[in-house]
Amino acid sequence: MSATMKSSDGVLLKSRVPAYEKILIGPLCVLGEMATGGHYIEVLRLAKQMSPQTYPQIHSTLVSESGLLGAFYRGMIPWGLIQCVKGLPVLFVQGETKHLLSNHTPFPQSRIEPLSGIAGGIAQAFFVCPTQKLKVMAIADPKYSVMKPINVIKSVVNDIGLTGLYDGLAAMCLRRGMDWMIRFTVSAKVNLYVRSLKDDPTEPLKLHELMGCGIVGGAFSAITHPIDCVITNSQKPSYVGSKDPISVAKVIYRESGAAGFGRGLAPKILDNSYHTMWMYGIGTFIYECVGQWTRKE
Fold it and tell me: Considering only CA atoms, which of 274, 238, 210 is closest in space to residue 49?
């Protein structure tokens, strides 16, 4: 987006206005993804990371405890809904970082894309960590899923202190930074490849093509899954002991071996692919449509 202003000698200059519409587009994309099945995919993934049960057993347990609809949206109200803000830093911080690096550093595009993804991921971690902690607790223990939100927060703060809401933050910053670096980098490379196959490489990609780019980028980002296992286990209510990433990893390995770091990988791949389809694919499409209406040269 650009705006015009006059310099001291009367010459018209162009100044870029930050893409504030991404502040709205990001959360809306997350809400759409979560409401249409994305949340339940994450519920299965988180439950699997905390339990050796099979997926059918996990589903049966969730349904017996919360009913079919309750299982599908367990932990979503209010923690999942609050987490819709995680779409804000991803699109806005990543986009603004990419713009700043492109215009104020000599970095090539091959370096700018990963760095901007890391910035968006780390910003997201600070937004998400407290609600992710509370969502994990609601999924792991049914008593938290029926308690009033304020009582859940009071219970956590009374038991482990205010800082307990940020259990796993270091690992989450590492994981989400790497995660979104991979998502945006791979999605962008697939985008360029698809464009290269067209008669006119400058032609904007269609919605389904952008969604496909996001699906591939999301699938590749599942390589960070072992770190995610460490985060989830450090946040579950039954965990006792030091919660720094290395200590938690040692506990997982002692209890389950190397396989413990792969629990929930299948829904993780599906979850990441579906989520990035919304964030990169649908989000980019909406942003470009908004740009046609609001950004004037």
Answer: 238
* H or E element at residue 4: strand 2-6
Q: Which domains does the chain have, with CATH numbers?
A: 19-294 (1.50.40.10)
Nearest to 106 by CA among 117, 118, 115, 95: 115
Task: Say which DSSP state 79 is in.
Answer: I
Give me the amino acid identity at 138: A
Quote the tokens at residue 85. 């803000």
Distance separating alpha carbons of residues 221 and 98, to the nearest angstrom: 19
pLDDT of 224 above 90: yes
- The answer to whether residue 204 scores a pLDDT higher than 90 is no
Closest by Cα among 71, 70, 75 to 56: 71
Q: Tell me the whole-structure pTM to 2 decimals.
A: 0.80
Report the Cα 239 to chain-centroid distance in Å: 24
Q: Is the separation of the CB atoms in 183 and 218 below 8 Å?
A: yes
E strands, 66-225, where?
none
Question: Over the stretch 164-176, which tens digit does the pLDDT of each residue have?
Answer: 889 899 999 999 9
Q: What is the dihedral of CA 194, 195, 199, 201, to 10 degrees?
A: -170
10-24, 99-113, 136-150, 253-267: least confidently modelled range? 10-24
